[in-house]
C-alpha cells in the first residue's frame, strides 16, 4: 500500500466528496436497504447544493484521504451549531468516516479518526461524539476499539424505514 495523505477539503473538492459519499454509503448500506430508499437518500444527501452548503458552513470540516491521486475515504466533522444533535460548545461531532471497501483494513479509517481527534484538540473540545447504526458491526467495533462508549440512541430514517443509531462518545484527555 502506498502512503495515505489526509487533506482538508475545500469547495473545489465538491465533486470528489459527492462521488466518495455516494460510493462509500452505497458499499456500506445497499445490501440492507431497498434500491428505492437508497436512491432517494443518495440524491438528497449528496445533492450539489447540499454538499456546497456543508462545505461553506464555518463549523463543518471535511477531510479527504488520498492514495496518490485517488481519493479513498473522507471525514466530516461538526462543531458548535453545525452539530446535528447535541450542539454542545465543548463537543465535536464525527458525522461521517467513510472508506472505500477496497481500502478497508488498511488503516485509512484510523487516519481519518486521528484527524478528527487532532481537530478536536485544536478546537479545545472536551469530547467527541457520533451516531452509528446499531447493525453496522464493523463501525461499532472500530469505535469501541477507539474508546467510545454508548450514551443514547436516536432514529435515523432511510426511506420509509426507521433505523436505530447508537450515540457514542469519547472523553478527550
From TrEMBL:
Q: What is the lineage of its organism?
A: Bacteria, Pseudomonadati, Bacteroidota, Flavobacteriia, Flavobacteriales
Under PANTHER family, the record lists: AMINOALKYLPHOSPHONATE N-ACETYLTRANSFERASE-RELATED, AMINOALKYLPHOSPHONATE N-ACETYLTRANSFERASE-RELATED-RELATED
Q: Would the keyword tRNA-binding be found if you checked this record's keyword annotation?
A: no
**A Pfam entry, by short name:** Acetyltransf_1
> What are the alphabetically sorted keywords of the record?
Acyltransferase, Transferase
From the Swiss-Prot or TrEMBL record, give the protein name: GNAT family N-acetyltransferase
Q: Which domain of life is it from?
A: Bacteria
- N-acetyltransferase domain segment(s): 4-173
User: Which spans are transmembrane here?
Assistant: none
- Spell out the molecular function terms from Gene Ontology: acyltransferase activity, transferring groups other than amino-acyl groups
Amino acid at each position: 500500500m502506498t502512503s495515505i495523505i489526509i487533506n482538508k477539503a475545500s469547495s473545489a473538492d465538491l465533486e470528489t466528496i459527492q462521488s466518495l459519499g455516494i460510493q462509500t454509503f452505497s458499499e456500506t448500506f445497499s445490501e440492507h436497504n431497498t434500491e428505492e430508499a437508497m436512491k432517494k437518500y443518495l440524491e438528497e444527501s449528496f445533492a450539489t447544493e447540499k454538499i456546497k452548503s456543508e462545505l461553506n458552513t464555518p463549523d463543518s470540516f471535511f477531510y479527504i484521504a488520498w492514495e496518490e491521486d485517488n481519493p479513498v475515504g473522507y471525514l466530516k466533522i461538526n462543531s458548535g451549531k453545525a452539530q446535528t444533535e447535541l450542539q454542545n460548545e465543548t463537543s465535536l461531532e464525527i458525522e461521517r468516516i467513510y472508506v472505500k471497501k477496497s481500502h478497508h483494513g488498511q488503516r485509512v479509517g484510523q487516519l481519518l479518526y486521528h484527524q478528527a481527534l487532532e481537530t478536536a484538540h485544536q478546537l479545545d473540545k472536551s469530547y467527541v461524539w457520533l451516531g452509528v447504526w446499531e447493525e453496522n458491526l464493523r463501525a461499532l467495533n472500530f469505535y469501541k476499539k477507539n474508546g467510545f462508549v454508548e450514551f443514547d440512541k436516536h432514529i435515523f430514517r432511510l426511506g420509509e424505514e426507521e433505523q436505530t443509531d447508537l450515540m457514542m462518545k469519547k472523553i478527550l484527555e
